[in-house]
Structure formats: C-alpha cells, structure tokens
Amino acid sequence: MSARVEVHSGWRYGERPLALWWEEQRLEITAVETEWRSPGGLTFRVRVQDGRRFELYYGEHDDEWRINPI
C-alpha cells in the first residue's frame, strides 16, 4: 500500500512535500531539511510541526511514496 503524501508540483511532480499522513493523522511539514535524487526516485528528509523527522521516498517507477520515521 502506498503511503499518503501531499505535495506541491511545479515543473515536476512532487517538487516539494507539504504534508504526510502517519498513523491516521495528517502532519504538516514545516521544513524540508534536505533532498536528493537516487536512480529510482526522490528522497526528502523533513520535519513536521511537533518536531518529529521523517524520510520520504518517492519511487518514480512505481509512482509510490514510502515514509520512514528517523
């Protein structure tokens, strides 16, 4: 099952993540700490309102998001 991430898309899909859903709760992203491209997709390290940090991975071939707490 694909994770749920809300994004802003400008010139490409998923240009900037805005919010994620974790444990049935919508968490607004307050900062994108870093981002990078790998051969299969995009990865973002983000911070949400309550200070927790997550790594978001968008697999371009599968058109699917994955969320990992860090």
Computed over alpha carbons, the radius of gyration is: 11 Å
Write down the domain tally.
1
- Name the helicity range: under 10%
Biggest sheet: strands, sense, closure? 6 strands, antiparallel
Tell me the span between the first and last alpha carbons.
Answer: 20 Å
How much of the sequence lies in strands comes to over 45%
Tally of helical segments: 0
Give the integer mean of the pLDDT values.
Answer: 91
* Quaternary structure of the protein: single chain
Provide the structure class: mainly beta
Shape: globular
List low-pLDDT spans. none
Order of helices and strands: EEEEEE
Number of strands: 6
Can you list the strand order of the major beta sheet? 1-2-3-4-5-6
Question: How would you portray this structure in words?
Answer:
- This protein has no helices and 6 strands.
- The protein is an all-beta fold.
- It has one domain (5-69).
- The chain is globular, with a radius of gyration of 11 Å.
- The two termini are 20 Å apart.
- The model has no long low-confidence stretch (mean pLDDT 91).
Protein traits:
70 residues, mainly beta, six-stranded antiparallel β-sheet, 6 strands, globular
Draw up the topology in text.
Layout: E1 5-8, E2 16-22, E3 25-38, E4 41-48, E5 53-59, E6 64-69
Antiparallel strand pairs: 1-2, 2-3, 3-4, 4-5, 5-6
